[in-house]
Amino acid sequence: MLPQAQPEPKVVTRTYKPFSPEFFGRVEETSDEERTTHGGSCHCGAIAFTVTLKWPFPKYTVNSCTCSICTRNGYLLVYPMRQDVKFSGDSKEKMGSYKWGHKVADHRFCKTCGSSVMIDLRRPETFGETDPRKDMVGINHVNILEASASGTSSVGYRKMQWVEGQLLNFHEATEYHPEGVLFMD
């Protein structure tokens, strides 16, 4: 049997820091003609909203997170700017809030039917005031009325987990660090 060559040592090339200003800095300007507005609601209709997305479905990719709460809530997420989500009447007052684990994200749900509506990604305690052009929320795609028949495409986050306040993707990362995931190339 021939000896096998040893692989080259890996070098840290980038660090993934979820919810960092760099992540939220990916703001793409789109023309008004490309933007689409959709109506949405919780299951019982107590919470109603409209959301304007940068692109129409299916061009707008829907994201699926496999963390325990997103999996249990059945989240399929789109990330519009906060200013592009408009709640009707007293819908905001009808939402409850739940923060789990490290209390990083504010999961919002209907107080009447329990439907998961959105994830509030604002973190002023960490990043200070957010630039309005980078202030996004995660809206549960399932609650967007026109989306179910639109043939959307989705991208899944695989095996992500919060460790020491960081979201770790163990399929892409080879080790973790308190400052984020260390990607090895």
TrEMBL record:
<protein>
    <recommendedName>
        <fullName>CENP-V/GFA domain-containing protein</fullName>
    </recommendedName>
</protein>
<comment type="similarity">
    <text>Belongs to the Gfa family.</text>
</comment>
<dbReference type="InterPro" id="IPR006913">
    <property type="entry name" value="CENP-V/GFA"/>
</dbReference>
<dbReference type="GO" id="GO:0016846">
    <property type="term" value="F:carbon-sulfur lyase activity"/>
</dbReference>
<dbReference type="InterPro" id="IPR011057">
    <property type="entry name" value="Mss4-like_sf"/>
</dbReference>
<feature type="domain" description="CENP-V/GFA">
    <location>
        <begin position="38"/>
        <end position="177"/>
    </location>
</feature>
<dbReference type="Pfam" id="PF04828">
    <property type="entry name" value="GFA"/>
</dbReference>
<dbReference type="GO" id="GO:0046872">
    <property type="term" value="F:metal ion binding"/>
</dbReference>
<keyword id="KW-0862">Zinc</keyword>
<dbReference type="InterPro" id="IPR052355">
    <property type="entry name" value="CENP-V-like"/>
</dbReference>
<keyword id="KW-0479">Metal-binding</keyword>
